[in-house]
Amino acid sequence: MNERPEVKLDQLDTESQNPDSSRAERLRELFPEAVTEGTGDIDFDKLRELLGEHINTGKERYAFTWPGKHEAIRQSQTPSTATLRPLKEKSVDWDTTENLYIEGDNLEVLKLLQRSYHGQVDMIYIDPPYNTGNDFVYKDSFGDTIENYREQTGQEHASNPETNGRFHSNWLNMMYPRLRLARELLAPTGVIFISIDDHESMNLRKAGDEIFGENCFVADIAWQRTYSPRNDAKGIPSEVEHILVWSRMPNWNPHKLERTAEMDAKYKNPDNDMQAWTSDNPFAPGAATHQGMVYAIQNPFTGNLIYPANTSCWRYQQDQMLDYMNGWCEYKLEDIHDEAKRAEICGIPEEDVRSNVQAIMLAQPLEESRQHAQAVLERGQWPRFYFTKNGLGGIRRKTYLDSVGGRLPTNFWPYAETGHTDEAKKEIKRLFEGKMPFDTPKPSRLIRRMLDITTDKNSLIMDFFSGSATTADAVMQANQKDDGQRRYILVQIPEETTSGYGTLCDIGEERIRRAARNLTEEQVDTNQPTLEETEPAYLDTGFRVFALDSSNLKSDEYTPGQELDIDLVKRGRTNDDLLFEVMLRWGLDLSLPVETKECNGYEYLSVAEGELVCCMNDGLTVEVIEHIVNTDDKPRRVFIPDHVFGEQNNLKLNIVDALRRASSEGQEIELRTV
């Protein structure tokens, strides 16, 4: 007889996930001998013993440190008991959008998102405070983080003046825990871009290398931020800003960019070839390791022998090169005993060079070969490898335009391609009817460049210093261009401004609304009916707004695992509030669709057709549960707060039994309560 599957009524975990706990778990898997019996803690003395010669026990070592670093690391490890409350009244297209805008301190928010978005973000862009002396630097508390957040919210924040003795330390203490948490959100192919100027670029590089790994550093991009450098500045005027880039894993490669008309103009067809081409190097590196590709080719015009340059070899195998040469005249393979010359090219002793490598030589007398080659030269459409100087020079290779694809991005981004600060301000003014509600925006073309080289049509993008929400604007533009479904998560602390538009969050949200209207109007204008009319791709211009707040549970009355017989949900909190806290704790995407469903007059919430079912109203019956597990929802997770059971212990047992029966039929169901 098969054992019936067990369904437990587990308590909901009310703390965010600590990313470092998964690292410790990996250590336990790799070194089980170092796990302390009973406690499960890691014995670091034993771990050192197991690592043996691979551990550095010397006292002298390179280290990057500052006052407060240990506390900053601890801050990233401290779980959050906060939550994100939905603000439907500030949202746009709540039911259908997959974009998120979160109002709150990004440190707490990054902690809360760990379960739901761990390893899922394809690109992060942040434009943090540059620490110029006038910037606000977040003042993190190691005590009550939500109370600290409330104290800061709605205030114009204090600057971090250079006269402060901990000027750089304060900035690093603010950035370090946030970057540690951000790393855990990046997908294996994910990349983070960070804008910064000279004030903290060196410190950011060191901190980033420590967090992401030196082998994951991609580039220090110089963005040409201005088209008109100041002539009245002291010293050397700054024309560029830094964008430091790290990947989640080593050896990341960017997508290629679209080619420019100027680049394509270099490709021509002087020989009347059907395709445009440019002259390219016929050689490849690695002569010593590719000796079979080091040999002579005889010129049909002069009879001279042409060899690869020193340390180089021909780019293709000999049989393919022979085919190319036969396009000029008839060739053959012949042993010419040129070991000394080939050894010189390979940079090895003559006795070590291969002895069986033949040359590509003319098969007919030189004069006859010259006549054939001259006819090809005059007729046109030369072979892939051709002879320069009307046949009298060396060998070059054709590279065809249609074979080169796009262009690789470099570490210099000129304003002509990626915009400048004045362009960014004009973008904002156009959206806000000539007003300037935000002082330091970035141009959307700059973010578009990052999206172009990093994302595909379904990527998830994050910006947790979102400011004027340029990132959201750029994502919508990218989706409009290629019919993509990229989505974003923006985070911004609701700092008060003097712009007349309220907080920075109010500005960012309004910017998204206005940019969305413009893009929608453009889409209508460019999608005029045609003979073969197709439905334009859906452009997601909405966003769900959430606000950081304390947990919906009465923390002073709740300890995980205790037996509950009272309503622990705070007064004034709604079912929607509790639903999204449950989704966070269970690690579900906050953009998943939510439906209100009904059975026998009882309403319940279903997330993504059964990913999660929440029964939070009084009046729940076993019949309702049986209906839920037998409908199309077939729930994978069920949440029922303890107050729904009240004093009806039999109801609780019967519901657990109903879920157990469903599990025995192949549905694995998790059940949790608070």
Concise summary:
The chain has 674 residues and is an alpha/beta fold. The chain is built from 22 helices and 25 strands. GO terms for molecular function: DNA binding; N-methyltransferase activity.
The CATH architecture classification of the largest domain is 3-Layer(aba) Sandwich
CATH superfamily of the largest domain: Vaccinia Virus protein VP39
Estimated structural class: alpha/beta
Count of individual helical segments: 22
What fraction of the residues are assigned to beta strands by DSSP? 15-25%
Characterize the overall form: elongated
Quantity of strands, as a count: 25
Mean pLDDT: 88
Family: Belongs to the N(4)/N(6)-methyltransferase family.
Organism: Bifidobacterium choerinum
Protein name: DNA methylase N-4/N-6 domain-containing protein
Pfam families: N6_N4_Mtase (PF01555)
Structural descriptors:
674 residues, alpha/beta, Rossmann fold, 4 domains, ten-stranded mixed β-sheet, six-stranded mixed β-sheet, 22 helices, 25 strands, disordered N terminus
Written description of the protein model:
The chain is α/β, with parallel strands linked by helices and 674 residues long. It folds into four domains: 19-76, no CATH class; 82-258 and 408-525 and 539-546, Rossmann fold (3-Layer(aba) Sandwich); 261-404, no CATH class; 564-673, no CATH class. Helices cover 33% and strands 17% of the residues. The chain has 22 helices and 25 strands. A ten-stranded mixed beta sheet has the order 2-20-3-19-18-4-5-7-6-17, sandwiched between helices. Strands 1-25-24-23-22-21 form a six-stranded mixed beta sheet, with helices on both faces. Strands 8-16-15 form a three-stranded antiparallel beta sheet. The radius of gyration is 33 Å and the shape is elongated.
